[in-house]
Specification:
5 helices, about 40% helix, about 140 residues, alpha/beta
Length: about 140
C-alpha cells in the first residue's frame, strides 16, 4: 500500500491511575505523531471515565494506555466496559507498561488488541496500530 493511501488513525494516549511516570507515554505519543498519526495526549492521572470521554470527544479510533501501577486488569476492564456502554466498541485498545506475562492472555480475552512491554520498539507499536482492522468483531 502506498504511503499516501495508508490509513492513519486518531490515537488517544492516556496515563490512567495515580502513576506519575509518563516518559514512555510521551515517547510513544511522539513516535506515533512522527509516524503520521494524529495523537492526543491526555496527561497524567486520568480516570477510565475521563479517558473514554476524551476518546469520544476527540473521535479517537485507538486508545493507548500506559500503565506502570499494576492496576492494568481493572483499569482495562473498566475502559472496555465504558466503551461498550457508550457504543464505542469500534475503538481499539492498546496497553503498554509493566504488565506481567501471565496477565497478557486475560487482557486479550477482555478485548485489548495488543500489549507492549518495556523495550518494545516504537516501529512495532506503529505497525500494530496500523495493522489491526477497523472496529471490533
Amino acid at each position: 500500500m502506498s504511503e499516501a493511501k495508508r490509513r492513519r488513525p486518531r490515537v488517544l494516549i492516556a496515563k490512567p491511575g495515580l502513576d506519575g511516570h509518563d516518559r514512555g507515554a510521551k515517547v510513544i505519543a511522539r513516535a506515533l505523531r512522527d509516524g503520521g498519526m494524529e495523537v492526543i495526549y491526555t496527561g497524567l492521572r486520568q480516570s477510565p471515565e475521563q479517558i473514554v470521554g476524551a476518546a469520544a470527544q476527540e473521535d479517537a479510533e485507538v486508545i493507548g494506555l500506559s500503565i506502570l501501577s499494576g492496576a492494568h486488569l481493572p483499569i482495562c476492564r473498566r475502559v472496555l466496559d465504558l466503551l461498550r456502554e457508550r457504543g464505542m466498541e469500534s475503538v481499539r485498545l492498546f496497553v503498554g507498561g509493566i504488565i506481567p506475562a501471565q496477565d497478557i492472555p486475560e487482557l486479550k480475552r477482555m478485548g485489548v488488541d495488543d500489549v507492549f512491554l518495556p523495550g518494545a520498539r516504537t516501529e512495532d507499536v506503529i505497525r500494530a496500530i496500523e495493522a489491526v482492522p477497523e472496529g471490533r468483531s
